[in-house]
Design a protein that fits this description.
heterodimer, A: 323 residues, alpha/beta, Peroxisomal Thiolase, Chain A, domain 1, ten-stranded mixed sheet, two-stranded parallel sheet, 31% helix, B: 402 residues, nine-stranded mixed sheet, three-stranded mixed sheet, 19% strand, globular
């Protein structure tokens, strides 16, 4: 491979998590939109409500002295990753049309069949006019959003970007665990000051075509691709202290797990506690938003691998010298 | 205008599957023939009687080129178009293996998740359970990457009707950052019940034909298919015939309304000017505009006003090519189809005649040549794509090899 691995870096200034209580079933109600958001949000898809609530928390988390919305509207962006934010809405629209015809659809909710309206509402709410991007790669879309947001910041197309993931249970999740909730960061360009409570995110995106794993050459390319990504991610920095693998049970998941364990052999143990099939892209972002490691303590590495071939690697760490 | 300082991104291959046929040649021939019409959608007509669509002919041409297995309709179109583009560009196995894939799609494989096919469905309001492994709705890009065995970054973009425009911006950046030398960039959409029924409910579906800028237009008419372009760095494109270059791209967000464009058009103007600036081109350099032009009342009026603002007095003398009148609104694939159209116009040096309007809307006095092909006097084509959520994209495509 001659093309280079690009590591995207950004600084987290605020984070917001909206998640169901542990043990909540996919059909159980757990989010009170009226209490969390106020009036006017009733017809939004649940994933959009979660995202808006997470954004409010993330913006408050920045503190009053560092208002991210002080930047010009054209320098404020949003990048959101999702797989299933409107899957239930699609199923409901489809069912209504089949049973009663299109005239029975609610004009308030049907526009949200377009999955980018979930993030679009975020832009309307906070006047983010720079750009609004929705990405949807299986399992990795959340990290994909963080990656592309960091690159947009690095390119100077925004001074601040809200980026993360939002999901609502996919009624056709099949063997996978449905996801619900939102995780959102307020990001500023990499290399800038890291506020107290902030952290640095670094991300790399890879792809392993599943059919290629049937041949030795394909397996070698996959292993090299993951190793190069890990090397690039940790270039010039400390080894990871915590390593977490979030992989579908699949040939791609196995290949990534092998490469990761090999690379981590003399560095850190690999946890697979949260591994398994999931119908969404939320969990990796939630893990990156988890309580940061102490300043200078090392990095939390989160590796996500989907059955479809998408792979995302991300680290979060707190530098010793913060603002 | 000053020359652009950004690294060149070349288009070296194209592929297209549309209602006009399953190749880019068939696409161009169909544009020249200007005879396409939308048709009723099997399985939808009984539920939404007034909805038509520009559908890919079911003659097996697209499906025959697809691999066996569980690929959805959008992925089959995308794979067929991608294979054509790869062949057109003359990519070797090593180049394909290193390629990135970036595909825009509004609803992905939503159509494959619909109930009621082959007598399925309980009909009691309960979504049908899915058996086996989870099949993500947005799997077109990964399906293309899997089938072609690409190891480069693989990104799925879903900004509704601007999705493949946004994907194009992402793809260009991959090359400019050196993250990929070759990108298979495209858009794909299969006809699905949910968007068609939703547009019908919103009163935004024309029951006759897609007729942007016509006084009698009543909304849009969806189309389906896929368009794929091979984008390459100067290093990778060296020695190949090229269609031209992506000179500039830009995006913005209205942050105004879920479905309606900001009537002031401020962000639409900004995005067009930004793309022109990045391209190092001015209003006088634009040889043709492929507008977003959907046929919805407000969109067409606002887009005319934006072009008037951006191109100034030259707007009245700059020809538009109203692509959606030929293939319908292909939603997430629309910008990729517009980009393929731009590449073909630059290669042939002409703009096909527009489908004749019954009566042009006096509120949209754009120039739509309808009496035969028009020479492309400047080899630069401006492409617009707008979407729900206020997502705005503009690209400047330019001819010339270096």
């Amino acid at each position: 491979m001659t093309v280079r691995v690009v590591v995207a870096e950004s600084v987290v200034h605020g984070a917001g998590l909206v998640l169901p209580p542990e043990g909540t079933g996919p059909a159980e109600s757990w989010f009170d939109h009226r209490a969390r958001l106020g009036r006017g949000y009733k017809y939004l898809p649940p994933a959009c409500q979660y995202l808006l609530a997470a954004a409010r928390t993330a913006l408050e988390d920045c503190g009053p002295e560092a208002d991210p919305l002080a930047a010009a509207p054209e320098l404020r962006g949003a990048v959101v990753g999702t797989n299933s934010a409107v899957a239930a809405l699609h199923a409901a629209i489809d069912e209504t049309v089949r049973r009663e015809g299109a005239s029975a659809l609610s004009p308030m909710s049907v526009p949200y069949f377009a999955v980018n309206l979930v993030a679009g509402r975020l832009s309307t709410e906070h006047v983010l006019k720079g750009f609004n991007l929705t990405v949807t790669s299986p399992r990795v879309a959340g990290v994909e959003a963080l990656h592309l947001a960091a690159l947009e910041l690095a390119a100077g197309r925004a001074a601040v970007t809200l980026a993360g993931a939002a999901e609502a249970p996919d009624p056709r999740a099949a063997d996978a665990e449905p996801e619900a909730g939102a995780a959102l960061f307020v990001l500023r360009p990499g290399g800038g000051p890291v506020p107290a409570g902030g952290r640095v995110l670094r991300t790399v995106l890879r792809f392993v075509p599943p059919p290629a794993l049937a041949a030795a050459e394909g397996r070698r390319l996959a292993r090299d691709s993951v190793r190069r990504a890990l090397d690039a991610l940790h270039s010039g920095g400390p080894a990871p202290d915590e390593v977490e693998l979030l992989a579908d049970p699949s040939p791609v998941g196995d290949a990534v797990a092998d490469a990761l364990r090999s690379w981590c052999a003399d560095r850190a143990p690999v946890s697979t506690r949260r591994s398994g099939a999931r119908a969404g892209a939320l969990t990796p972002v939630v893990r990156l938003a988890a309580r940061p490691l102490p300043a200078g303590a090392g990095r939390r590495l989160v590796v996500t691998a989907s059955r479809a071939g998408n792979v995302a690697l991300a680290t979060a760490h707190t530098p010793e010298h913060t603002d | 205008m000053r020359p652009s300082a950004t690294p060149d991104v070349f288009v070296t291959g194209i592929g297209a599957v549309s209602c006009l046929g399953a190749t880019a040649d068939a696409f161009w021939t169909g544009l020249k023939a200007a005879a396409s019409r939308p048709t009723p959608v099997p399985g939808l007509t009984e539920h939404v009687p007034d909805v038509l669509a520009y559908q890919v002919p079911d003659d097996g041409t697209a499906a025959a080129d697809a691999s066996p297995g569980a690929l959805g309709r959008a992925a089959r179109f995308a794979l067929t178009a991608a294979r054509e583009a790869v062949t057109d560009a003359g990519l070797g196995a090593h180049e394909v293996a290193e390629a990135a894939v970036v595909i825009g799609t509004a609803v992905g494989e939503s159509g494959g998740r619909e109930g009621g096919h082959d007598g399925e469905g309980a009909g009691d309001g309960t979504p049908e359970p899915a058996a086996g492994s989870w099949e993500p709705m947005f799997s077109v890009a990964s399906a293309v990457g899997a089938e072609l065995a690409t190891f480069g970054p693989n990104i799925s973009v879903s900004n509704a009707c601007a999705a493949s425009g946004y994907a194009l911006s992402v793809a260009v950046d991959l090359i400019r950052r050196g993250e990929a030398d070759t990108v298979l960039l495209g858009g794909a959409e299969g006809i699905a019940r949910v968007p068609l029924a939703s547009f019908s409910r919103l009163g935004a579906a024309d029951p006759e034909t897609c007729r942007p800028f016509d006084a009698g237009r009543r909304g849009t008419v969806f189309g389906e298919g896929a368009a794929v372009l091979v984008l390459q760095s100067a290093r990778a494109a060296a020695g190949r015939p090229v269609y031209g270059r992506v000179l500039g791209t830009a995006w913005s967000c209205d942050a105004h309304h879920p479905t309606a464009p900001d009537p002031g058009g401020e962000q639409l103007v900004r995005v067009a000017r930004a793309a022109l600036e990045e391209a190092g081109r001015g209003p006088g350099d634009v040889g043709c505009v492929v507008p977003h032009g959907t046929g919805t009342r407000q969109n067409d009026v606002v887009e005319y006003q934006v072009l008037r603002e951006v191109l100034g007095d030259r707007a009245a003398h700059t020809p538009l090519f109203s692509l959606k009148a030929f293939i319908g609104h292909t939603a997430g694939a629309a910008a990729a189809f517009a980009a393929v159209s731009a590449a073909l116009m630059v290669r042939h040096g002409e703009i096909p005649a527009n489908i004749a309007l019954a009566r042009q809307d006096p509120e949209c006095p754009v120039w739509l040549p309808q009496d035969g092909p028009t020479a492309l006097r400047q080899p630069n084509v401006l492409v617009n794509a707008y979407a729900f959520g206020g997502s705005n994209f503009t690209m400047v495509f330019g001819g010339g090899s270096r």
